[in-house]
């Protein structure tokens, strides 16, 4: 059996109707996992699930819309996953928000709270809903998609970076708590990737040139280039890896 085989596993991926989340869901399915596509809009989720089912067979994916800002919606996501597939083996907390660009002195309290609530607290909620069954089976993998922003300062996305640094610590804390029960918790830290979410950072040619000038690979990433790290962390290939952050940034942080 391949170290990367995910046959018989069920994975929830939040924010998976596009970008990095979609790429992760597609690659998990390619390696045999049944995947639950989730984002705010049901029609967008339906489209991705249909594409995965067309490629890998009916029943490989289902679509469950859920806003990460709603604890009730997240619980429904978990309940519907259990009803459809009977278990949750892998959780990928990918969805995040960033409603503010600029110096932190200018951020409104409600914007800062929204960032922290959606990027940190919602992960805490969803992990708490999925982990008990993993603990009971003494097996499971939880992946938080953080960012290299959590490793660096910024005058443009400082509040977002604060939330992503908190995600690193959330993973470390939970790795300690769940590790004795065979459940692993890790982060992926992408650099700048060509997604709609990061469009403000790469769409302008001058901004893009500045962002890639000293990156060893001299370019930004593509969503599918992050998916491999998620497959690794979801699979037996990473069975001795927990509490870690895998940086996928073309070398930007070195």
Task: Describe the fold and architecture.
The protein has 254 residues and is α/β, with parallel strands linked by helices. It has a single domain, classed as NAD(P)-binding Rossmann-like Domain (Rossmann fold, 3-Layer(aba) Sandwich). It contains eight helices and seven strands. The chain has helices spanning 19-30, 42-56, 71-85, 109-137, 158-178, 199-202, 205-212, 224-234, and strands at residues 10-14, 34-38, 61-63, 90-93, 140-145, 183-190, 245-248. Strands 3-2-1-4-5-6-7 form a seven-stranded parallel β-sheet, with helices on both faces. Helix 3 packs parallel to helix 4 (109-137). It starts with 9 loop residues before the first strand and ends in a 6-residue tail after the last strand. 45% of the residues are buried. The mean pLDDT is 95.
Cα-atom Rg, whole angstroms?
17 Å
Count of helical stretches? 8
Average pLDDT number: 95
By CATH, the superfamily comes out as: NAD(P)-binding Rossmann-like Domain
What is the H/E string? Answer: EHEHEHEHEHEHHHE
Name the structural class. Answer: alpha/beta
Total strands: the figure is 7
Strand content: 5-15%
The domain tally reads 1
Return the CATH class.
Alpha Beta
